[in-house]
């Protein structure tokens, strides 16, 4: 379906990350409140922050979707009506639900609210997608365990009015559609209520009960794998194939990730989609756009299940991230041949940095001279959030990220 209007859907765990998503090219942003969301660790949004976010987004033609995709218990249900009413009052564009009961309550409390069905529901066939559409869903977020061929069949056998969304980038859960009990069992943090401790990332050994203290490594063989840590998903090279399969919304995982992560990855997919529309039938991603997703903290990448059962989706060496770049500053303004910034991490005069502005190729430059806020020359920007400047004959928009390669 080459005529699909592809949506770049970015995550936001707080106001700073929301700003990064909006500034760096998202068509829509999904975020959570303090209740009913699948990410309990980020700050999330109170009502006033939600109203401000929606107003900011709508002024730029960007949509806002609010998550209510946990599996709520009985004692939480009485609070849901207020949750929905506040979403309506704030003019939220859609609610993302996983629970059939909550779906029915959204229809009751807000008949005109657009409803998206969360990946937590585990939609893997066209019958389920059809039924949810008949129940009032405008969009289904398909299970991450589907191939492109399976997605194409769901697209072909459902109403064209039903939007299809898939995760295309970010962390993958070892459990089917995120339905995992491991975290709750080990540390009493319920993954189905947004509290996952990610025990799938931990290192495990086998110990026989009569040999305490003797730890044996656990290996993969032809009978299966017992190592839980999965690689991150990355489909930035395959925008054309996602569009052809009928995917409408390209969802980036990461409400708990940094504002820098949100900015860079959103920007990369924005540019990749724009590149796709230049020539949909001969899409080839420029290397410099692909390189962007390697300049954030990430695990090794794979394509998930999109091309069939993955053969190399687990990472056995460790559960850590690959991190080669650090944000050192953010641009505040440009005037009189200088770039004015606020510091984020320490760096020195003479360092080579990259400036990444929205929808632009990063600009590399060596910062030979730095000035403090009084205009005095300094050798290092070493105070958190300090104001400084450097001479430059180029201009950059407010919010431009300045980063440094840690390997240099």
**Biggest sheet: strands side by side, in what order?**
1-2-3-4-5-6-7-11
Strand % is 15-25%
Q: Which residues form runs of ≥5 with pLDDT under 50?
A: 222-226
- Number of E-type strands: 22
CA-CA gap between termini: 44 Å
Report Rg: 23 Å
Helical proportion?
10-25%
What multimeric state do the chains show?
single chain
Q: How many DSSP helices?
A: 10
Give me the secondary-structure category: alpha/beta
Specify the overall morphology.
globular
Let me know the average pLDDT: 88
Major sheet description = 8 strands, parallel, barrel
Can you describe what's shown?
This protein has 408 residues and is α/β, with parallel strands linked by helices. The protein is 24% helix and 23% strand. It has helices at 15-23, 47-59, 80-89, 100-109, 126-134, 148-156, 182-187, 239-244, 259-278, 287-292, and strands at residues 7-12, 28-32, 63-68, 94-97, 114-117, 139-141, 163-170, 205-206, 216-217, 232-234, 249-252, 301-302, 325-335, 338-343, 347-348, 352-356, 363-366, 370-372, 377-378, 380-381, 387-391, 401-405. The strands form four sheets. The protein has an eight-stranded parallel beta barrel with strand order 1-2-3-4-5-6-7-11, surrounded by five helices. It is globular.
